[in-house]
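Friendly challenge for the regulars: who can give me the structure tokens for this chain first? No prize, just bragging rights.
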Amino acid sequence: MSNFIAFEVNQEENVFDRGLVKKQRTPLQEGHVEIRVRYSDINYKDALASSKNGGVIRQYPMTPGIDLAGEVVSSNDERFPVGKEVLVTGYGLGVSHPGGFSQYQQVPVEWLVEIPAPLDMKTAMTYGTAGFTAALAVVALNQKNYDKDAPIYITGASGGVGSVSIALLSHLGYTNVIAISRKNSDWLLELGAAKVVNPADLIPPVVKPLARQTATAIIDSVGGDLLSALLPQLAYNGSAYLCGNAGGVKLDTTVLPFILRAIQVTGIDSVAVDQAKRQEIWHFLAQHHEILEQLKTQEILLSDLDETINALLEGKHQGRTIVKMEV
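First reply, four minutes later:
Bragging rights claimed.
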């Protein structure tokens, strides 16, 4: 079996290191397929997994990367023959199971999704978990049948989930999407945001149980103080879709927005979604593939991960970063 390169993290007591390692391909495990990984992408979760005491990985050494796309090179399953182009997101990939930052990877066959046309391996990873998560939230929001000019807040707007959410909502005809970002993010207006607002302008000195009704819905990837301040601002029958905790896991709220304004809060999980829902969401993303040309993206090599990891951890990263499995 031939050698290949992977990005690996290791932590023993207080000693942490990460970097490229040479690994050996092994015989195919039962119930698995082997994939020649062509592309991955990098998410905030990957940055945490690639940092000391990041709280994501429990067993070391580990290859991070919660997403991958490539072609099958070894398989005993007729649904996924050799040459089939597939993607994997979520499950235990890059957390409890070696992940996508690797030129070859074996994964359970139940995790595979055939890449739907007109997407290919690269564009599938332009979406990645961030796009998949955004689509889960947008589809749920769209089922509410809100007016297309209803004000919708997108927190963490310059990140992957936020920016894809804006583009998808705009493509669906929503005209009053409000991007919430601390960064200089005028490019979000080109995605379809009506305006960009600094989160500090939406957090009052004292957060009251109920505030002026300024938004119909929220797609939130931040959590913490910002979400705590926004929930009281939701309009009657409003809804919030929670899919991240970049600003903290604590939520300080009361029952009043729920019982006096009938708001609903929906948790968005992208890890353990069943296959039927995965197929639905990936076909939804494929149907809206035109937005891919609008997204702020960059492509790096497997050997260039460190800089992007640091930018994510420092809050300096914007848009989507695709990782090509070359060094």
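The chain has eight helices and 15 strands. The longest helix spans residues 121-142. Your move, everyone else.
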